Amino acid sequence: GAVVSQHPSWVICKSGTSVKIECRSLDFQATTMFWYRQFPKQSLMLMATSNEGSKATYEQGVEKDKFLINHASLTLSTLTVTSAHPEDSSFYICSARASLGTRFYEQYFGPGTRLTVT
Amino acid sequence: AQSVSQHNHHVILSEAASLELGCNYSYGGTVNLFWYVQYPGQHLQLLLKYFSGDPLVKGIKGFEAEFIKSKFSFNLRKPSVQWSDTAEYFCAVKGAAGNKLTFGGGTRVLVKP
Description:
The structure holds 2 protein chains of 2 kinds. By secondary structure, chain A is mainly β.
């Protein structure tokens, strides 16, 4: 199946610093990528929808200045958590939706990035 | 706004038992429905999906789901589970014309060998 990678898989940072998480679609092009947040023992909550070459669309309650999203190419989207605080500690999952081909419109998920802010 | 409700948070059963996980959704239009599975330590994988046509959908690994429009339900079933089916299962819905996938709270399934 299609592969979506995330880097890093696990990161610890100090409060007040910024962390960048990368999401790559390895074998398909993705015009649209999605960023989710998953709290322990809870479901995935959509944070934002990232479209290649344009500004991301954020869900209600998600601070766009805190969670910066850049989707500069058809295979890469990044999420930067700025001025991280302990309450930002969570599991961040990206998803990429195939733009064309036999996988058109299928949505594939990355393995997630666990962020711990100390 | 669309929403998804999964009735069971935890299910424990023995190998060879039958499994049924409930999923109800709320949405005022045509929907696309999905079941995803997340095995321990792994990423979400698509089990099956319904877009249109036959409301009984067959997916991978022997799973099937039935879309009952009148009940706004999309329950997942497997006749005989294996230990390897231990995982968390998520139901999700997307408006047919929309972009946003909304997930249910998930059901953790533990299959005892």
